[in-house]
Amino acid sequence: MDIEGRRRGGNIEDRRGKGVGGKVSLGLGGTIVAALLIWFLGGNPMEFISQQAMEGVTTTDGTYTSTPEEDRLKDLSDVVFTSTTEVWTDIFRQNGRQYTPPKMVIFSRATQSGCGNASASTGPFYCPLDQTLYIDLSFFSEMQNQLGAGGDFAYAYVIAHEVGHHVQNQLGTLGQVQRQQQRMNHTESNQMNVRLELQADFYAGVWAYYDRKNFDSIDEQDIRNGLNAANQIGDDHLQMQSQGYTVPDAFNHGTSEQRYRWLKKGIDTGDLSQGDTFSIPYSQL
Length: 285
Known about the structure:
The chain starts with 11 loop residues before the first strand and ends in a 16-residue tail after the last helix. It is α/β, with parallel strands linked by helices and 285 residues long. It has one domain (12-284). It is built from ten helices and eight strands. The strands form three sheets. It has a four-stranded mixed β-sheet, with helices on one face. It is 54% helix and 10% strand.
C-alpha cells in the first residue's frame, strides 16, 4: 500500500507507555476464544475482557520506546485513519449529511475506554459510547504471525472496518440494531450482529474503493492481502481452529466466505446503496 506523500494528522491520541498497562495471561488467541464463548452463552464479554485487562496490571507513566516497525505501523495507521475521515466526510456531504469523525487511541498492553478496560489481547474495537477506536499496534504482528493475515492493506482493512462501525453509529444503524436485539433470543441476536459486521466489512471496502481511486494507493496484491485477512477472521474458520468444529448459531461476525464477499463488494463498487445487509434473507448474506 503506497502512502508516500499522504496526509497525516488524524484525531489520534497516543497512550503508549501511559496509564494502565500489563501483561494479559491468556494471550491473543485464548482471550478472543474465551470472550467469544462467553458471548455465545449469553454473557457479557466486556466484563471478562475488563477482568483480563486488569490482570497483572501496573501503572506505567514512563517514556515509551517504540521499534522502527512500530513507528511505521503508527504512520500507516495515521494515514489510513485520516483518509477514512476524508472519504466519509465526502460521502456524507454528497448525501446531505454531516460526518463527525471518530477518535483513535493507540495504546500499549491495556488502557481505559468508554466501554471498559481495553486490552491488547482483545484486538482493535470501536466503542460507541465515546466514539473512539482503540488499537494496540502489536495486533498487526499477531495478525501476520498467528492468523497468517499480514500486509499493510490487511491492517488498513482492520482500521477501516472499525471506522465502519462509527459510520453505522452516525447513521443510527448501531442504535436501531441494539434496540432490536433486546427483544430477540440469543441466536437471532447473533444473526443481527453478523449483519452489522458484514456491513462494516462492506464500508471498509467502500473506503478502499475511494482511497484507490483518489490516490492509486492500493494494488492487486494489497487487495489479495485484505481479502485474505477477511477470510482468516471468519467465524467458521476461527471456530475450527479453536475447537475443531463449527456452531453456526453462534456465529456473530460472519463466515470467511461472507466476510470476503462483502469486503470485495465494497472494494469493487464503492456504492453505498449496495451495502444493505439487513433487508436480504439471512441465508443469502
